[in-house]
Design brief:
41% of the residues lie in helices and 15% in strands. It is an alpha/beta fold and 338 residues long. The radius of gyration is 19 Å and the shape is globular.
Length: 338
């Protein structure tokens, strides 16, 4: 069984790649010429160099594959040129799905995000059916993923595309080489550089469990249906307490109001634009998102796929350990408590 995967060099994609190999798939990975390939070191995978914005660079190879896992995405909470994010997350997804339909692949798993889902105003966990519109999407990342998922759903109907959609929550764990925004937060907290927190909440899940969920969706998911792949709902304070339990760093005790941080985020973004720097440590969209508790239910994935994620303590412990082993923490960093 030959399977084509995008995003295999990234955080979630490399975990999915390992699951595919472990379950007997012959894997072909599409990588851009400048992709960091360290997450693929030593793995038996055929690499094709190309770009999702150029269908000619991947369509011939995809035509010889049985299945497709589209995991690649541009995940940033701030971008100096938003058009690039829409090109990667929306246009490229459309290109790939059309190529898959023409190639008549047998099964497609599309990696969306809980960012596309609605949230309950009372803070209770949302699910795959919670009402939501494009107007509810905060920031370019959420808007682009919402539009991309809508394109996948449209093509599933119009092109009879055999696609199952998965919506990971907030993955944490090993191989977060960039790292992701959540990974940066863990690095800051584990390094003792997080003196305060805001009142928000996330659903955390081990990245390797997200990968298992992809394979379960491939094997058991209903065509056209979407599944939240999450773990445990935690406040940010609870997350920091658990990170502290894995290190000898104290958890932050000061809670900051969102309105105090928002002006700082505007200044940080303005400076990043002025100097042409990377994503600032605090962003306007990040602060706006933090005003909501992003809690989700995984009941559908549990009941229909048999999805059973491990305790979130293990996910955070594995993340801190990996960041420490790979030099992301301060030189006087803590050892991970077992």
């Amino acid at each position: 069984m030959k399977t084509f995967i995008t995003g295999a060099s990234g955080f979630v994609g490399s975990a999915v790649l390992r699951q595919l190999i472990e379950t007997g798939h012959t894997v072909v990975a599409l990588l851009r010429p400048n992709s960091d390939r360290s997450n693929l070191d030593g793995l038996p995978v055929e690499i094709v160099t190309g770009d999702l914005t150029d269908p000619d660079s991947f369509a011939p190879t995809l035509a010889n594959c049985d299945n497709l896992f589209h995991v690649a995405a541009d995940y940033r909470l701030w971008v100096p040129r938003p058009d690039e994010m829409y090109e990667t997350n929306v246009t490229a997804t459309r290109n790939l799905m059309l190529a898959a339909a023409r190639a008549r692949v047998k099964r497609v798993v599309y990696t969306s995000s809980v960012a596309t889902l609605g949230l309950n105003s009372d803070g209770t966990p949302a699910d795959e059916t919670t009402p939501v519109t494009l107007a509810d999407m905060i920031g370019h990342y959420k808007r682009s993923k919402f539009l991309a998922e809508a394109e996948v759903q449209r093509l599933a109907e119009e092109e009879n595309l055999p696609v199952v959609i998965v919506n990971p929550s907030t993955p944490v764990g090993p191989r977060d080489i960039k790292p992701t925004p959540t990974g940066r937060m863990i690095v800051e907290a584990a390094s003792g550089r997080m003196p305060a927190y805001v009142d928000t909440g996330l659903n955390l899940v081990h990245v390797d469990d997200v990968a298992v969920g992809h394979l379960l969706a491939f094997e058991r998911g209903t065509i056209g249906r979407r599944y939240i792949l999450g773990g445990q709902n935690l406040t940010l304070k609870q997350i920091f307490i658990q990170i502290a339990a894995s290190t000898d760093r104290p958890a932050p005790r000061v809670r900051l109001p969102h309105n105090l941080i928002l002006p700082i985020a505007y200044v940080a973004e303005g400076w990043a634009r002025l100097v042409g720097g990377s994503e600032p440590r605090v962003t306007v969209d990040g602060v706006r998102l933090a005003k909501k508790h992003m809690f989700f239910s995984i009941d559908r994935a549990k009941h229909e796929l048999g999805f059973t994620p491990r305790p979130v303590e293990e996910a955070l412990r594995d993340a801190v350990a990996w960041f420490q082993q790979h030099g992301y923490l301060q030189s006087k960093n803590p050892v991970v408590n077992s």
